[in-house]
Amino acid sequence: AQSVSQHNHHVILSEAASLELGCNYSYGGTVNLFWYVQYPGQHLQLLLKYFSGDPLVKGIKGFEAEFIKSKFSFNLRKPSVQWSDTAEYFCAVTRNTGGFKTIFGAGTRLFVKA
Amino acid sequence: GAVVSQHPSRVICKSGTSVKIECRSLDFQATTMFWYRQFPKKSLMLMATSNEGSKATYEQGVEKDKFLINHASLTLSTLTVTSAHPEDSSFYICSARVPGGFGTEAFFGQGTRLTVV
């Protein structure tokens, strides 16, 4: 089945450590790609998005992601995490068909130790 | 960015009753809105696509008679959970797509936490 896969369900890091969260999708064709963050008890916030152009996308709060078309991947990175980055991170994909539905990965729960 | 508002943010209802959740696009017209369900500590599951002026399109496994969707105007979609049961308790989130189709992002509401007692 076509899907969005996030490889890490739980990640624990110490402050200042580097972060990389994996995301792969299985849709062919053109896609729009997103990373969202959900802080405890809060609603979704958009971190960054890719529509076209430069495959390295910079978002808010020091996050970036790289779209590698050949690998169907859109991994999220941050060079140095902070305690306040503790949250759940969702990768999402919109296909260029079928009403442009956005499908979410299972999410990665990040805990940053102070 | 564009603003999508959901109401209510929290609702508690008795088992067997129906509850309506509203999703409004405040500063743009949305021909398409989407309804998601999020279980505790889980991801967002797409329930249906709400199309203005036509019937909603439901994802496989979603009961259309239980989750009634109406998209009567370009700024409002409603989700009615009919004959609610405790297993319907969940976080329901809507999103609305800015006109332009593919290549535009969808904006998300703040969600509605439904508790059925």
What can you see in these coordinates?
- The complex is a heterodimer of chains A (114) and B (117).
- Chain A has strands spanning 4-6, 10-14, 19-21, 23-25, 31-38, 44-50, 56-58, 64-68, 73-78, 87-95, 102-104, 108-113.
- Chain A has 114 residues and is mainly β.
- In chain A, strands 2, 5, 6, 10, 11 and 12 form a six-stranded mixed β-sheet that branches.
- Chain A is globular.
- The mean pLDDT of chain A is 93.
- In chain B, the strands form two sheets. In chain B, strands 2, 4, 5, 6, 9, 10 and 11 form a seven-stranded mixed β-sheet that branches.
- In chain B, β9 and β10 form a beta hairpin.
- Chain A binds chain B through residues 30, 32, 34, 36, 43-44, 46, 49, 51-52, 90, 94, 96, 99-107, 109, and chain B through 1, 32, 34, 36, 41-46, 49, 51, 57, 93, 95, 97, 101-103, 105-106, 108-111.
Please give the count of helices of chain B: 0
Strand content of chain A: over 45%
If you average the pLDDT of chain B, what whole number results? 92
Helicity range of the residues of chain A?
A: under 10%
Taking the alpha carbons of the first and last residues of chain A, their distance comes to 40 Å
What is the C-alpha radius of gyration of chain B, as a whole number of Å? Answer: 13 Å
Strand segment count of chain B: 11
Indicate the percent of residues in helices of chain B.
under 10%
Class per helix and strand makeup of chain A: mainly beta
On the 0 to 100 scale, the average pLDDT of chain A is: 93
Largest sheet properties of chain A: 6 strands, mixed
Largest sheet of chain B: 7 strands, mixed
Given helix and strand content, the structural type of chain B is mainly beta
Poorly predicted parts of chain B: none
| Strand/helix succession of chain B | EEEEEEEEEEE
Strand content of chain B: over 45%
Taking all Cα atoms into account, the compactness measure Rg of chain A is 14 Å
Largest interface pair: A-B, 23 and 25 residues
